[in-house]
Specification:
The strands form 2 sheets. The chain has a 5-stranded mixed β-sheet with strand order 1-2-5-4-3. Strands 6-7 form a two-stranded antiparallel sheet. The termini are far apart. The protein has 2 domains: 130 residues, Beta Polymerase, domain 2, CATH 3.30.460; 84 residues, no CATH class. Strand 6 and strand 7 form a beta hairpin. It is globular and about 50 Å long. Helix content is 50%, strand content 20%. The chain is an alpha+beta fold and 220 residues long.
Length: 220
């Protein structure tokens, strides 16, 4: 657990650094890490995901970001790919790496808002622009249908519990229910359990996603 705590502090430090270098002005923060740092999602997350909020020349943005990063961080890997910019960094050698992915996709109009990123493991709050919960729910539905990762199911249930409406087609609901029923006990114990905060870990090991399944079935 200490490793996850240290990793979250590194995530916050990187957000603060990106803001100080004026890169956050073009980016929309999304994914599980955004839910964790801006909405107190009760699980830790590994990677930082961004989408573009303002139009940028992707090649120029990558070059500027890389040139500044290498001056202050150990860049383990950096790639300017067709669909995204991928960067793995370490603050120091032999420390755990942090993966940053910047998707070369513009955030849909009206899908972002200003948010505060914060953590009890970091002394400073950071102002970011992040996806709305409605947009994150849409993204999580597509991700769960496409890849079936258990953390996406957890995040989707979190959003539903917060009152974000599903508004899904019958076909989408059926696909999601099949995904949920496909998770095994080992998935909750091993893949998900290690990410969860202690106060919810036992519940999900015992109950799984029964709440989300009921909501999807009830609203069909």
């Amino acid at each position: 657990m200490q490793g996850l705590i240290d990793h979250e502090a590194l995530q916050m430090a990187m957000l603060q650094w990106l803001g100080s270098k004026r890169f956050l002005g073009s980016l929309a923060f999304g994914g599980g890490t955004m839910l964790r740092l801006c909405h107190e999602l009760p699980r830790y997350a590994r990677d930082i995901d961004f989408w573009f909020f303002k139009e940028e020349d992707y090649g120029d943005f990558y070059n500027r970001l890389y040139n500044v990063l290498v001056q202050e961080h150990h860049v383990n890997n950096a790639q300017n790919n067709l669909h995204s910019i991928l960067i793995d960094i370490r603050q120091k050698r032999r420390m755990a790496k942090l993966k940053i992915e910047i998707h070369k996709t513009m955030a849909p109009p009206g899908s972002t808002e200003e948010k505060i990123a914060f953590s009890s493991h970091f002394p400073t709050q950071v102002l970011v622009r992040g996806f709305t919960l409605r947009q994150i729910l849409n993204n999580k539905v597509l991700a769960l249908i496409d890849s079936g990762e258990i953390q996406d199911a957890f995040d989707l249930e979190f959003l539903v519990r917060k009152g974000v409406p599903l508004n899904l087609s019958e076909k989408q609901r059926a696909k999601l229910i099949r995904r949920l029923k496909g998770f095994r006990k080992e998935d909750f114990q091993m893949k998900l359990g290690g990410m969860l905060l202690p106060e919810v870990r036992d519940y999900y090991k015992q109950q799984g996603f029964v709440y989300l399944e009921e909501r999807l079935s009830f609203e069909q």
